[in-house]
Amino acid sequence: MIYKEMSKFIDITGQRFGKLVATKRVNKINQHGSYWLCKCDCGNECIVATGDLRSGNTKSCGCQGGVLKDLTGMKFGRLTVLQRVENDKKGNARFLCQCICDNTIIVLGWCLSTGRTRSCGCLQKECVRNRTLTHGDSNGGLEYSKWLSMKSRCLYQSSDQYHNYGARGIKICDRWINSYENFLKDMGRCPLGLTLERIDTNGNYEPSNCKWATIYEQAGNRRNNRLLTFNGRTQIMMDWVREWGIARPTLYRNLKKGRTMEEIFNLFVKKGGN
Question: Domain coordinates of the chain in residue numbers?
Fold first, then answer.
């Protein structure tokens, strides 16, 4: 008969493992192996498997740098600690804090001690708002976003529009490239529904070559616009679409089939065909 030798119990009471000191052996329901109740240098207690302690996988309660056992009354950024609350599922110490904006929030101890959490979230919102107001954007930063978009498509190859702008040599004038304030002063506020357009599509972004334009105006100024002639008049496709009151795909599809402008006019405009 073969007998399997039982694993020898090793008493590690009082031994230190990183920030943890084993205080007593405990049993965990439905868990195999041995576990130890440990006390962390930060004052928190946690239960850790013997193997994790001896292998070095677990060296603290999760405080990551340690926090005092009682942080009540201490301030961290905009937060003041009110009291310690129940640990999270991993045994990390948590604290109920009050922000200067009067909101309350529960924060992990190590997030407080390391400066990772300094407010209830209002600080980040305020920074975004202040950054916007710094540029004079009381209307929500509409012009600022258009200025950023202009820089993105001209300067950054990661932009999906770079091939139509920066790659073609389209530049931003020195007065605008690093000064949103100058851009806003020269262009003024953008009327609702308009967008930034270059008058000369091969020219640069500069005061003399830019205006606020409607979507239709901008569409009419594209390099790939097709000029069409009918009854002695020549205009771009979008102008014929608006004048005739038909859909652009309808005009485009029939031109692709080889129909003339007169045939399309008689079929879809004069006769009201579909």
Answer: 16-55, 75-123, 137-220, 232-270
